[in-house]
Design brief:
With 172 residues, this protein is mainly β. The chain has 2 domains: 77 residues, RimM (Elongation Factor Tu (Ef-tu), domain 3, Beta Barrel); 63 residues, PRC-barrel domain (SH3 type barrels), CATH 2.30.30.240. The protein has 2 helices and 12 strands, in the order βββββαβαββββββ. Strands 1-2-5-4-3-6 form a 6-stranded antiparallel β-barrel. It is elongated. The relative contact order is 0.14. The N terminus is likely disordered.
Length: 172
């Protein structure tokens, strides 16, 4: 069983206070829009904190007021702490969207039942991600993460099913 706390992901760090009323300066580490919006819940020191006010300070800094944090000294006690969130909040992730760490280690099979290897790396490109499929002693296969090739991703079963177009299997 996975510990709920261990399943959370880091979305930022507490930089420190701004002013004396408990406003918190956060360095954002997420590219998911809306993570720091009014009403969202974040976790600091394993404590759930509801966002009651949010505004961007600059591209990577967010200013927040959190429920229950009322003065500068409370924020100072949190300085340097991780700000975490539940990774699979359906508010943010569209269906069939996965974090890279979900995909690393998946066993990849072709639609013809041929075992191709496991995903050892996800390469981010401008157009789409590319999965590096590895079997020790063989040439790696690079598979673009597009719907016409990736037929199924089953995280609980640790399997990805792909339809390899002619020429994409470099092991033949």
């Amino acid at each position: 069983m996975i510990d709920e706390q261990d399943a959370r992901i880091v979305i930022g760090y507490v930089k420190g206070p701004r002013g004396v009323r408990g406003e918190i300066r956060i360095t954002s580490m997420t590219d998911i829009v809306g993570r720091f919006e009014l009403g969202q819940t974040v976790y600091i020191d394993n404590q759930a904190c509801k966002i009651i006010s949010s505004r961007e300070s600059n591209q990577k800094e967010v200013l927040l007021f959190l429920e229950g944090i009322l003065d500068r000294s409370q924020v100072e006690d949190l300085s340097g702490k991780q700000v975490m969130a539940d990774p699979y909040d359906s508010t943010f992730l569209p269906p069939d969207t996965y974090f890279h760490y979900d995909l690393i280690g998946l066993q990849v099979q072709s639609d013809e039942g041929v075992y191709l290897g496991e995903i050892i790396e996800v390469i981010e490109t401008g157009a789409n991600d590319v999965y590096v499929i590895h079997i020790p002693g063989h040439t790696d296969i690079l598979i673009p993460a597009i719907l016409s090739i990736v037929m199924e991703v089953n995280i609980p079963k640790n399997i990805m099913l792909v339809k390899l177009p002619e020429g994409l299997n470099t092991r033949k």
